[in-house]
Amino acid sequence: MSIASSSSAAPAVAAAALNWAGRLWFAVAVFGQAAFIGFILAYYGVRTATGNFAGWNDKPLIDGYVEGDPMGNVVFAAHVLLASVVTLGGLMQLIPVLRRRWPGLHRWTGRVFIVIALFMALSGMWLSLVRGTSLSPVSDAALLINAVLILIFAGLAWREALKRRFDQHRRWAMRTFMVVSGVWFLRVGLMGWVVVNRGPVGMNDTLSGPADIVLTFGSYLIPLAVLELYFAAQHSRHGAVRAAMATLLLLASAYTAAGVFGTIAFMWGPYL
Questions:
Q1: Residue 222 above 70 pLDDT?
Q2: Mean residue pLDDT across the chain
Q3: What are the tens digits of pLDDT across the range 32-44?
């Protein structure tokens, strides 16, 4: 093989590596979010269906059920249970084969995803700022920013779809997926940090430790940054840029996998 043919093949190899690294991360995310859906249904769903509302508090940190607060309890139940629906809808939106073979299903799941995402953002803000269902001012601030981003990104994704600018719609939908998944990313990020450091370094029970602060805001800002780098790498003509992005995605996949393992083992499994 000549030097010229070798150099011309390098960008194609880097592009393929970037593509497969993106698929690997998504596969890890699908597994982790499926576990998240399963936990919501098995923990909150079963307790709600059987009328054991006080059992929402069996898992420590945040009290979901508050005696004498029927409105707050209803909003909390809707917010938590719909998290499973919006998570599933977001995953379905990002599967290319569904978009190609069943465009009608893609459109309707997209509408449901965006409507529920808007409700999740508004109800999350209400629970935190009005009801006081939070751990610290730091978590309140992070949640508020996350909710605002959800409202903006979901609105832009919907607008681009109506204008039939589907490439821009796909980008805004992916950004919406990242910020809507902030709750999941937070748990995976915290447990990934615990697994990597073999302990809760820089953490406390109110999510106000130095590591907590970085991960609380980073639960949506870091995935957004990685997504923007991925978009840039896809359009780059330089094989080195794509190879670097593929490497970053491999590292992100490894950290996400560690976080998913830690979340299932330490945060969800013990309460099922």
A1: yes
A2: 92
A3: 999 999 999 999 9
d(CA 261, CA 258): 5
3-state secondary structure 193-206: HHHHHCCCCCCCCC
Q: Which residue has the tokens 């700022």?
A: 129
What is residue 136's predicted lDDT score, i.e. its pLDDT? Answer: 84
In this structure, what token pair is assigned to residue 139? Answer: 């978590």
The number of residues making up the chain comes to: 272
Contacts of residues 169-176 at CB distance under 8 Å and 24 or more positions apart, as own/partner, are: 171/231, 173/93, 173/94, 173/110, 174/94, 174/227, 175/224, 175/227, 176/90, 176/113, 176/114, 176/117, 176/150
What predicted TM-score, i.e. pTM, was given to this entire model? 0.92
C-alpha distances out from residue 245 to 21, 96, 233, Å: 9, 21, 7
Number of Cβ atoms within 10 Å of the Cβ of 193? 22
**pLDDT given at position 114:** 95
**Amino acid identity of 202?**
G
Computed on alpha carbons and rounded to an integer, the radius of gyration of the chain in Å comes to 20
Q: Are 128 and 144 in contact (CB under 8 A)?
A: yes
Amino acid at 83: A
The model's pLDDT over 150-183, given as tens digits with 9 standing for 90+, comes to 999 999 999 999 999 999 999 999 999 999 999 9
The vertex-146 CA angle with 213 and 53, nearest 5°, equals 90
